[in-house]
Amino acid sequence: MNQPNKIQEAIHAYRTRHHLAGVQPLRAVLFDMDGVLFDSMPAHVRSWTEAAREVGLRMSSEDVYWFEGQTGGYTINLLYERTFGRKATEEERKYLYARKTELFVAYDSGAVLPDVGLVLEGVRDLKRLVVTGSSQASLLDRLDVAFPNTFTPELTVTGKDVSKGKPDPEPYLMGLKLAGVSASETWVVENAPMGVRSAVGAGIFTLAVNTGLLPDTALLDEGASLVFRSMTELAETLPLLRSCWEAEG
């Protein structure tokens, strides 16, 4: 990705699409959590597929990556509609999400993705927010342990904070409001198609990091401006990316 022309073209295309004139200062970066900050997707895959199978629902590993970013309740309704032709009852939703959470806690190592710290350090002068579909109670503690003095509850959007989760733009629009910035002054770092769609729908320049099983086209087709192979590649490209952003008119 260390290609200035490709980066400049992506920035120019974004600004042209949104009718932006001149350089827009970068003031904030909104990060998805699972698969961007934490290497937690394998645990999500295992816990979702096992919990779904226990109640007779069909769910593949690829499904977990496609559905990632949505609220748990939304995903459960999709599974019930696909398998049984109806939405889940409230009792079914509560049971399955609690069971999935129980399994996730057992399987998740809490490990962060390699070089995510370098990415966070590279934007330390900006507002840094987390925008996640997760509603797990341990979320803020988990962030504080892994990334001390980096994220705050006031600048975090979770699945409990929104009425419509990803792929609706609401989570990222809420992130912009909390940060007090406009979409043209912001980047999003995402790993999931539904998250990319949400960020693009909010009008934000979206960087996708493909840390999962899906092809790059799954992210590009949803509107990602650039796709990176890993957080390491993003960290290596970040100085050039910021330079191009400030220079591109």
Automatic annotation (TrEMBL):
It comes from the Bacteria. This is HAD hydrolase, family IA, variant 3. PANTHER family: FRUCTOSE-1-PHOSPHATE PHOSPHATASE, GLYCEROL-1-PHOSPHATE PHOSPHOHYDROLASE 1-RELATED. The lineage of its organism: Bacteria, Pseudomonadati, Bacteroidota, Bacteroidia, Bacteroidales. It holds the Pfam family Hydrolase. Keywords: Hydrolase. One of its GO terms (molecular function) is sugar-phosphatase activity.
